[in-house]
Design a protein that fits this description.
Blueprint lengths: L1 E6 L9 H15 L6 E8 L1 H12 L7 E5 L16 H4 L7 E9 H11 L3 H16 L7 H17 L6
Parallel strand pairs: 1-2, 2-4
Antiparallel strand pairs: 3-4
Helix pairs in contact: 1-5, 1-6, 4-5, 5-6
């Protein structure tokens, strides 16, 4: 599992966000039985940066905590069946890794939501990475059952890593 991380704001947290992201991404892929080595790009930005991306790509002119930009078109949630004629679109020719997509996280929102929900910053960060990874694996939460499925998977990923609401 490769995480290409860019930190636009230099948050200076008491944990290594790149290592935490890598652990969460790997755990998500294991839960989903991904048969490939994979890569994800992760950008840490601020509220202004994520607001601009949200406006530009979703037409919503407001801040959000996380944005996911999947590279793979899944026919079914978490089913990694890559058609041969799409391999060039999905795999890095140099590393052979499946390029799942991009994750954008607002550092400001991580800090705000950790306070709001009464848990640590690492836990909130890991939760947003897990949430976004599930989007990159084809999941959505537009309907109640979809949201329930995602929530259960997110909690399973975090619990498996011992990342709890401390």
């Amino acid at each position: 599992m490769t995480v290409y991380m860019e930190d636009e704001v230099g948050a200076g947290w008491a944990f290594d966000p790149e290592e935490t992201a890598r652990q969460v991404c790997q755990a998500a892929l294991e839960l989903e039985n991904c048969p490939y080595e994979a890569a994800v790009a992760l950008v840490l930005t601020d509220n202004a940066g994520i607001r601009e991306l949200n406006r530009q790509y979703r037409g919503i002119d407001q801040e959000t905590d996380v944005l996911s930009f999947p590279n793979v078109d899944f026919r079914e949630e978490g089913v990694f069946q890559i058609e041969e004629d799409r391999e060039a679109d999905y795999f890095d020719p140099d590393t052979g890794e499946l390029i799942l997509g991009d994750i954008m996280i607002s550092v400001d929102k991580v800090q705000e939501q950790a306070r709001k929900y009464g848990h640590g910053i690492r836990r909130e960060f890991a939760f947003l990475v897990a949430h976004s990874m599930l989007h990159l694996c084809g999941y959505d939460h537009m309907e109640a059952q979809q949201a329930k499925d995602m929530e259960e998977r997110q909690e399973e990923i975090l619990a498996g890593l011992g990342i709890t609401r401390d």
